[in-house]
Amino acid sequence: MKRFKVTVLAAVMAAALAVTACRVQPKPDPDQTMTPAETKASAMAIETSALESSSETSTSETTMGTDTVKESKSEKLPGQDFDVREELFKLRNDVSVKQVLVIRCEEGTKGHAMYLVKETGEDGNTNWRIARECDAYIGLNGPGKTKEGDTKTPLGVFGVRTAFGIKSNPGTKLVYTAITPDTYACGCEKYYNRIIDSKVTGHKCTDGEQMYYYSPEYNYGLATDYNPNNEYGKGSAIFIHCMGVKPYTGGCVAIPEDDMRYIIQDCEPSMKIIIQKF
Q1: Among 1, 100, 171, 253, which lies 20 to 30 A Cα-Cα from 276?
Q2: pLDDT-derived band of residue 238, with 50, 70 and 90 as boundaries?
Q3: Domain residue ranges of the chain, discontinuous segments joined by +
Q4: Which residues, other chains included, contact 38 with Cβ-Cβ below 8 Å and sequence gap of 6+?
């Protein structure tokens, strides 16, 4: 995909977005009303500046005073078929979605997480505010998951099934699954890609994770709806969870525990998760 070089203007916009919780725009001049296309272009500039400002570890080259577009020479990965800016623009106009967690996959197993919150100004316009951002780890073999066991992180736009944790519920609007010694992220065909209680189901899980013994990773977490139909072999248990001692995951996304806890406390069930390499 295409990666944008950072211009002086974009850098200024990015700084304003990061520092200001929600800047109220002046009321539009009736004689200077923008067309729908101009409105979308202006709005997407905010998405672009947010993405460019998120980390100094971006793979884009920094060249002051130029807006040259750099063409990526790498082949597209599975799931790398959408524009993150377009998705953020669409979600900004979706009244049901108020938060987005953007995971940027970088080199190797490194990543960067941005928790965006939608805010509405006095003029009625909505914008994304970066409420939290942090480093992240992704799958051992990078992004582009296609099957079980490839230790890759899937790319795409996902919803949230449930919050969970070994630690007690920190206070969340989501359904919270308390992890006990009987809790499994099941890899067996019968309950594939589901978190189950073996006592409740009566199922002896012979393939999967006994989640209670994965601490600090599962102290807090979010189960994504990757593989929503639980298709056997396509990949399972794709979570956003706490960092452990390893600088990689088996395909999930790991972030610091403080950030994980904050997101669980703040987000709503309609939150979307965007994972992409850009």
Answers
A1: 171
A2: very high
A3: 81-278
A4: none
- Helix/strand/coil (H/E/C) assignment for every residue in the chain: CEEECECHHHHHHHHHHHHCCCCCCCCCCHHHCCCHHHHHHHHHHHHHHHHHHCCCCCCCCECCCCCCEEECCCCCCCCCCCCHHHHHHHHHCCCCCCEEEEEEECCCCEEEEEEEEEEECCCCCEEEEEEEEEEEECECCCECCCCCCCCCECCEEECEEEEEECCCCCCCCCCEEECCCCEEEECCHHHCCEEEEHHHHCCCCCCEEEHHHCCCCCCCEEEECCCCCCCCCCCCCCEEEECCCCCCECCCEEECHHHHHHHHHHCCCCCEEEEEEC
What's the CA gap between 257 and 244, in Å, rounded? 9
For residue 143, with 0-12 CB atoms within 10 Å meaning exposed, 13-18 middle and 19 or more buried, which class applies?
buried
Query: Is 84 within 8 Å of 102 (Cβ atoms)?
Result: yes
Inter-axis angle of helices 84-92 and 36-53, nearest 10: 120
The set of residues, in sequence order, having a beta carbon less than 8 Å from that of 49 and lying 6+ positions away, is: 10, 13, 14, 17
Domain 81-278: top CATH class: mainly beta
Query: pLDDT tens across 35-55, in order?
Result: 445 445 545 555 655 565 444
User: pLDDT category, 69, cuts 50, 70, 90?
Assistant: very low
